[in-house]
Structure formats: C-alpha cells, structure tokens
Amino acid sequence: MSRPFALALPAFLLLGALATGCSEQEQPGGGNLDPRVLYAFDSCDDLLSYTKGEAKGLIEKYGNLNGYDYSGGWFGDPAGGESTGGLTGSGSDGGDSGGDGSPPPQDGGNGEGEGAGDDYSGTNVQEAGVDEPDIVKTDGERILAFARGKLHFVDASGASPTLRSSLEIGADLYDVQLFMHEDRALLLVRSWPYYYGDWEGAPEPAGIDLQQYFGPDYYNSITRLIEVDISNPDAMKIVSNLHITGDLVSARMVEGVARVVVRSQPNGLKLKDPYEFFDYEAYEQGGASEALYDHLWQVALSQSKVFNTSVIEGSTIENWLPRYVREDLSQGQAEVSSGVLLACDDVMHPGVYSGLSTLGVLTVDLDGHLSPTGGVGVFSEGETVYASKQNLYVATTPWNPADSDPEASAEEQGRTTYIHKFDIQDRSRAAYVASGSVRGWLLSQWAMSEYEGDLRVASTDIQGWDQATSESFVSVLRQESDELQQIGQVGGLGKTEQIQGVRFIGDKGYVVTFRQTDPLYTVDVSDPAQPVVAGELKIPGFSAYLHPVGEDLILGVGRDGTEEGQLLGIQLSLFDVSDDAAPKQLHKTSIGSEWGWSEALFDHKAFLWWGKTGLAMLPLEWSSYDDNLGYTWEQGAFGFRVDEADGISLVGEVQHPEPIVDECWDEYYGCYYSPMLRRSIVIGEQVFTLSDVGLKASALADLSDAHWVEFPQN
Prior knowledge:
8% of the residues lie in helices and 43% in strands. It is mainly beta. The strands form 9 sheets. Strands 2, 22, 23, 24, 25, 26, 27, 28 and 29 form a 9-stranded mixed beta sheet that branches. An 8-stranded mixed beta sheet has the order 1-4-19-21-3-20-16-15. A hairpin with a 3-residue loop joins strand 44 and strand 45. Helix 1 runs antiparallel to helix 4 (290-313).
C-alpha cells in the first residue's frame, strides 16, 4: 500500500518521467491520492505491482510503453496527437528563509560560497553560494578546464600561466562539466554505449566493459561521474568512476556537496513492436489489399500485446530502477561493484500516475568519496531544477492530451507544472518537505526563485495550439505543512506571446515575452499575496538573458529585430528599472546586421560580468552584409564596457590561434578552422578565455594578448 511521505530522504532521490493523464486514478492500496503529494512504497512487491500494473495498462491500450497508438497502422499515432510519454514526460531541467533572490557577487566570486573571490571570477550562477557545473573552474590560483577529452590543470598563481598536466578522460567525450572543491574535482559526463556485436574489428573497450553489467540491449544514455584527485597538479589521477543508467540533466553544489540530477528509463525489457509479428507472406499472397492489411495488422498488434504483457509480467526490480557500476581506483587496481541504486521501500510516487521512467538526484560530498549510497525514488518527471542554499526544487510539466483534442473545453486544455521541494541542508541526505503546482510551463531554471521562504514562479500557458490564448503568469507559492500553496498570482503578461527571459532580483521580477516586439515587464512581488505588473516597455527584438550590472540597472543579452518581428543579430541592451512603472532602455548595441548567435543566449555560464571595471564578456559570432564586401563572418570573445552615462562600448575582442593539423583529409579546402571561444574568467588583472585549443590570458584593461597556453591536441 502507499503512504504519504514526509520523512528524510537518503542521498539518492529518484524522480521519474511524467506522462500523459493528470487525472486522478487509483494507486497501490486504492483510493484517490493528492497529485501534489509524494507517497512511498512499502516493499518491492508493492513497487513491482505498481510498475507492472501501469505498464500492462499501457500495453493493453497502446501495445507499447511509449504511448504510440499502433491501432491505425505501421507507424502509429502519438496518443492525443503527441507522445504520451509512458516512459518520459513533457520532454523539456511556512518554509525556512531560503535564498534571497539577489544577484550573484557583482565582482565575481567562486560561486560556491567558500571565499570572497575579490580578485577572480567564478562561474556565473543564479544564486550566490550555489555553484553550477561548467567546463572551467578556478579558485584564483588554479584553473581546471575540460577540452577535447582531457582535463587540463593550469597554474595561474605566477607571473604567467603554465599548463601543469592534462588527464585523459575520453577522446570521444565532449559533453563534460565539472565541479572543483579543494583537492577534488567531480566530472559529470554524458555518454552513450557503443556495442559492436560480433564484429571482429571492434575496438577494445576503453576502461570497464559496461556491456557486461548493463547488457547488450542497453542503448540509452549513461551518466558517468568521475572523482579526480587534483592535489598534485603534475599528476592528477582518477580516484573512482560511477556509471549510472540514465541521462545527465543538471547539478548543483553547496559548500562541497553536489546534487547530480539523472534521468533514467526502464531497462532490459525486450519488448516487440507489431511489425515484428506482421505476416508479410500472407499479405502478399492475399493480394495486398488495404482491408487485408488492416486485418493482419490487428492480428500482429494483438500478438505483440500478448508477448509484451508476458515480458512485463516476468520483469524484476532491476528492470525498473536505475543501475550502477562503480570503479574504485584509489588503490591502483580497480575494484568493481554493481547493483541497483536504491531500496524498494525508499521509493515514492506522486498521487497522480506519472510514468515509468525515473530521474535521480545523487548527493556527492566532495569531502568524502564518490559512492552509490542508499536512496529514495519518486516516479515523477523533473526536467527543471532550481536550488537555493537551503532547498532544491524539481519542476515537471506533463503533457496534456486535451491540448490536441479539438472538442476539449478551455478548462480542460492548458498545462500544469508540478513542483517538489526538498530540504538540502543536511550534507548526507535531502528531505522531501512539500509539493505544489502552477498553471503553465516553465522556460528554465530562471523561472523559479526563492525569496524569504516563498517561491516565485514565472510560467506561460496556452490552450491547445491557439496562440491567441497564450499568456504568462507570476505565481507565489508558500509552504503550508506538506503543500506549496499558491498565495498570490498575477497574469495577463504578454498575451499571444511566450516568456523568452526572466530574472527575479530581490522583491522584483523582470519578465521578457516575445512574438513581434519585446515587452519587458516589471513585476512587484513585495506583497507576495498580491503580485502586480508595475510597468512595461515594448521594443523590437528580445532579451533572452538578464543580468544585474548595478543598482537599478539590468543588462539584456538577446536578439535585435525589426518592428515586424524579424530577428537579426545579437543585441545588448542596458535597462534602467529604478522606476517600476516606467522601465527604460538607456542604451543598446547590435552585433551583426544579418545574423548573430551567442552561447550566452541559452547558457548563462557563457556570460561574464566583472563589476569592478564594468566589463561584460561573451562569445559571439555573426554575419553582416556590405554592398562592397558582401557577406562577412566573424567570431570570438568580445568585451564591452557598460556604463549608465556612456553606454555600451566595445573594449576589444579575443581570438585564439588556429590549431595545427598534422594530417589533413581535405586537400582542396584545407583543414583550418577558427576555434570557438566558450568561456571567460577574470584572475587579477587578466581575462582568461577558453576554447578547445587552449587558454589565452589577455589584459583586463583592453583585452590585448598577454599569454597563450596551448592544450595537447592529440
């Protein structure tokens, strides 16, 4: 039977994928449950009864676990016109005082809250003291950077930076992020298995052969956590690896304790689709008519349902919960252990059925060692993650089938986002404390912000596909017992538009919507029970990222545009928000008349603000057209001086040298390319820019070249 869960959660919190169907339904133990509350299973039999029952229900209805309706033929139709996400969900990352919704340190800081960082910048994070993983980290003397499959240690303590060592992580790995804490680094790796079957020319597996543990039929993502000892800069070494069946979603770290979010699917279930039972010979010999096809397809569908139901009936716990393989390399010789990541009686599910995939939050204390600890599971999606220093919030927005039903009423259509709150003040475990919901879906982590114990949430909702019904909201949730109750809400923002950017600063919210022009709304949340739209500014284009650059000043990074809504190049805008009722655009500068792009548009960690000198840096690439020169293209890291009176002016740009290619595969065009600059950090009087080729130090004053550190390219 299910029981309400309000106990402390061990280190591994598992959440699963939210699917279609927000309707109430009976759960293990019977009865209608509150969809905003999490309930625990009592035993493995309870959990298996739940997963098997829901899986067999999906198979009986659709023939598979993915929600594709094969009743109409070969390719099937997503239920409700859209994938129901039987395995995965929507597809999109009085409580305590919590965070303060304030901007990060204006002059840098290491983002981890472990030091002042007066003379160096850290990762650009949402909340001061809550670090976020990135491809480069520094403590003002050491720089750790990941590029081209290697972790590089650069000593920045002397007069000139020096590459001390490079640690091979994996030549085929590119999507790697890291945390740094004292003499430990935690690398977060997203990878996929490569299985070659019986091919004689198959390469030997690098490191441990995960196929032996996860099986030859596991083709989904694998998250690899790597603990690295960086105490000896000349000889970094991997201490342990933890491989998890699942896709890396997000992570946060507070005072050396990381919470790593991983999304997993059921594994090892050898289900079959109807086409594998279709009698092609009978179809051809019978004249290949449409009626015969329909008949034979229904026979195949029925056979697949019988087969798949038997597979589900024979499934075990190992098929439904994430598995792990741990390599302990601390003593030199690898000691390997494997198993299921959590105990059955620590698993939870929300009051509404929410799918069969899982998403986990693994707690890793970098003062200790990487290990799979006991944990808790929740079958509920969590694609959007936000954290203050005290609490972690996981938000999920299930697909609503009524949005694709033309006969559904307006009340039935639209999205609902469910939000689960966890106390993370205990270094060894999280504690589930409350859940709630808001209307609509969230843009990103920036749509949530904790302030004086309340959670502010910005969302957009639309009825079906009717853009005319789209509008955005700012809601305020307050914890009351085990529920996040909505105590205030303001709507009507950006009607017919969607949120493109959002930032909460103190008791104010700034929301950017866009369809043709860019309304910047100021929202007064000083009275959380009655948030109000205080002012609005309409300008062409939009700002995707908003960053505070001084008292009542916000810098927007976005796209320039015409009055008709055509998007052009990159635009930096300086806004004066001293008067809530009348926000003003003081200055703007545009880069690229035809087209522009920056990683900072969708990843805030690519943006650097150094308040001491008013320097904003970000990677840019753009194209322009001139009647004489034609189209021109340029890219690099560009620095801008931002001043309330003098405006936004270009300080300079940084380029990295083209790498030398020993063997070129293209004799006609050659094999040269301009390396993409992705990050900028400040240490002392220098700005360091990172590409996959190396690290360049430039003068903080004018961005002139100072030192170049090249990474090994093989």
